[in-house]
Amino acid sequence: MIYYSLVSIKAYRGNFKIAPHHKARTKFLVLIPAVNEEAVINIPVDDLKNQKYPKKLFDVYVIADHCTDKTAMIAKKHGAKVITAEMGLNVKRHGVGKSNTLDYGLHYLGLNEWNKYKYVVVIDSDNNVASNFLQRLNDYAVEFSEPEAIQVHLDSKQGHGFIRHCQFFCVNKSFR
User: Which of 31, 62, 96, 154 is the most exposed place for a label (fewest CB within 10 A)?
Assistant: First the structure.
C-alpha cells in the first residue's frame, strides 16, 4: 500500500507529457457494470455513443447484473450491447460486487470475443464521458507504445465531494 501511495503522489506531482493527436487505430472494449441503475445508465451510454472516434473501433457493453429495474432495457434502447445475469446461467461466478459483475461479463463474452480488443475500459454507470475520451486514450496508447495500463479521470454526475471524482484504468489486453 505504501508503494502504491508513493507512486500515486509522485505521479500527481510529476510533469505529464501530453500526447499529440494520432490516427485512430486502437480497439476498445468498454464495460459498464450496473445493478439497478435505470436512473443514470443512459448517461455514459449516450456519451459513448457520441464519441468522436470511429464506431468500428469500440464496443460498449452494459453488464446488467441481477437488476430488478429497467437498466438493461434502457441501456439497449440507448445503443449499448447488454449482458444480463440470465444470459449466462452456466458461467461460474467469482468475487463479490463490481469485480464479480466484471468477471461474469468477461466470462460471458469469452476469450475469443474480448481478445479482439487491445484495451478493456471500465466506466461506472453514472459517469460522464467526454466526446474525445476514446480518441485521447488512443493518442496515449500510440504515443507511449501501447502501455500496459492507462489511468484516466472522469467526473460523475452523482454524489458530492471526492466521491464524484473517479479514477479508472484502461488495461492493455496483452497484460494478463
Answer: 96
**Pair 117, 29: CB distance under 8 Å:** yes
Total tally of structural domains belonging to the chain: 1
Residue 81 lies in a domain: yes
Q: Of the candidates 163, 122, 123, 126, which has an alpha carbon nearest to the alpha carbon of residue 43?
A: 126
Q: Is residue 11 part of a domain?
A: no
CATH for 166? 3.90.550.10
Query: What is the reported pTM?
Result: 0.81
Q: Is residue 156 part of a domain?
A: yes
Range of the domain at 37: 24-172
Instruction: Compute and round to an integer the Cα radius of gyration of the chain.
Output: 16
Q: Residue 174, Cα to own-chain centre: how many angstroms?
A: 17
pLDDT tens, residue by residue, 32-48: 999 999 999 999 999 99
Is there a domain that residue 93 lies in? yes
Q: Which residues in 146-173 are b (16+ Cβ under 10 Å) and which e?
A: beeebebebebeeeeeeeeebeeebbbb
> Cα 7 to the chain's mean position, in Å?
23
pLDDT of the residue at 62: 98
